[in-house]
Design a protein that fits this description.
Mean pLDDT: 84
Structural class: alpha+beta
Shape: elongated
Distance between the termini: 6 Å
Number of strands: 6
Helix content: 55-70%
Order of helices and strands: EEEHEEHHEHHHHH
Low-confidence stretches: none
Strand order of the largest sheet: 1-2-4-3
Length: 290
């Protein structure tokens, strides 16, 4: 599910901002972009986000709005600077080059100016307990946004379930007429084949009973309604139900396919095709659900 959340607060001697973005993904997949001095909290941050968000591609960006700059000092290596100047002047003389060696040239050279940690009064390493409150606030915003999206998705999925239930009711009403039609068709076929000869009524009744058993979809309808009820219950849960609904969608499709294979009736076949379309849309929406 998609979501965005951000938070910032004082951390150590600086001010830290954390932004969290999530998009759809079957599993939990976190990508963290943290300043180097937050590398020590990455494992705890990743695990806490897994607990809070459970599923989705999660992109986390942390940056210092006001960095703990006081904890770092810039030192000058005069010896290195003199070497750079001497080497540049020698190069100029030997190659007969124009120009002069200035401050900008020397300062850009590696190791002349170096940022280092301060001495005894420097900042201690950032701890997870310092960063966690900011992460929690940003994650709460993400969860709230995802919940709003989830409510809209639940309404859409319930509408699909309503359509599927109505279609199942239509099939249930059409099923008896189908059996009656098959009964009459079988009688006429037997009469035509026997050319008016006496028909064994008991044997004909047995064949019709066997045909009715093969075409009966009562069990499929019962299981179908049970799966629909389970899906409705899942949609009212406050837990992650995406995987559960995915399984139920598979089972619903299984029952619909069985009803279609037993249909032997054009109207029921058309209804089954429409149900498959609704189920496909149902399953597509599940990709957006946690």
């Amino acid at each position: 599910m998609t979501g965005f959340g951000s938070a910032e607060d004082r951390v150590s001697s600086g001010r830290l901002r954390i932004e969290i973005r999530t998009v759809n993904h079957r599993y939990f997949n976190a990508q963290l972009k943290l300043p180097a001095d937050l590398g020590g909290v990455e494992i705890e941050m990743r695990e806490r986000l897994r607990q809070l968000l459970e599923r989705g591609h999660v992109a986390v960006t942390a940056r210092w709005i006001e960095g703990p700059a006081a904890a770092r000092e810039v030192t000058v290596d005069l010896s290195r600077a003199k070497q750079v100047v001497a080497a540049a002047q020698q190069l100029k003389k030997k190659l007969k080059l124009k120009g002069s060696v200035d401050l900008a040239f020397v300062a850009r050279h590696p190791d002349v100016l170096t940022a280092t940690n301060g001495g005894a009064g420097s900042e201690p390493p950032v701890q997870w307990s310092d960063v966690q409150p900011v992460v929690e606030r940003a994650a709460r915003d993400v969860v709230a946004m995802r919940e709003r999206e989830g409510q809209a998705l639940a309404a859409e999925l319930n509408a699909r379930l309503n359509a599927l239930e109505a279609a199942a009711h239509t099939i249930e009403e059409q099923a008896p007429a189908r059996l009656t039609a098959e009964h009459e068709r079988l009688k006429h076929a037997v009469a035509a084949l026997t050319a008016g000869a006496t028909i064994d009524a008991q044997r004909l009744a047995l064949e019709i009973a066997l045909l009715a058993d093969r075409l009966d979809i009562t069990e499929e309808l019962v299981r179908f309604r049970s799966h629909v009820a389970a899906a409705r219950a899942a949609l009212t849960s406050d837990q992650a139900v995406g995987k559960q609904l995915g399984f139920l969608a598979q089972e619903l499709l299984r029952e619909v396919n069985t009803m279609g294979s037993k249909a032997n009736d054009a109207r029921i076949t058309h209804t089954v095709i429409a149900m498959k379309g609704d189920l496909e849309k149902f399953r597509e929406q599940l990709e957006n659900l946690e």
